[in-house]
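Q: How would the structure tokens look for this protein?
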Amino acid sequence: MLGNADSQWRTLAKATSWRLVAVTITTSIAWWLTGETAFAATIGAIDAVFKFGSYYLHERVWGQIDFGKAQQPCVPLYSPERSIQHDVKEFYSRGCAQISRRA
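A: Here is the predicted structure in token form.
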């Protein structure tokens, strides 16, 4: 898996912002069709609760799938503060096939 998946907080922020847009659309359409503000608001609230959770789970699943993600470049790693074992583990975790030796 690549190391550029969204954090849980980013997923929650995306889900919240999308839900605000979507619930506004749903409520507006329900009001336009029925002319009843309370009924439209109820439909919007129910829609928001169920679809928020669905969107969050959907994003978390897709965050674990590498399809379509840009890969991080496979450049040799070296830091005097870290061990070679740490560098090797990080290098392989990014899907790099070869490891360059330290100078």
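Residues 8-63 form one domain.

The mean pLDDT is 77.

Upvote if useful.
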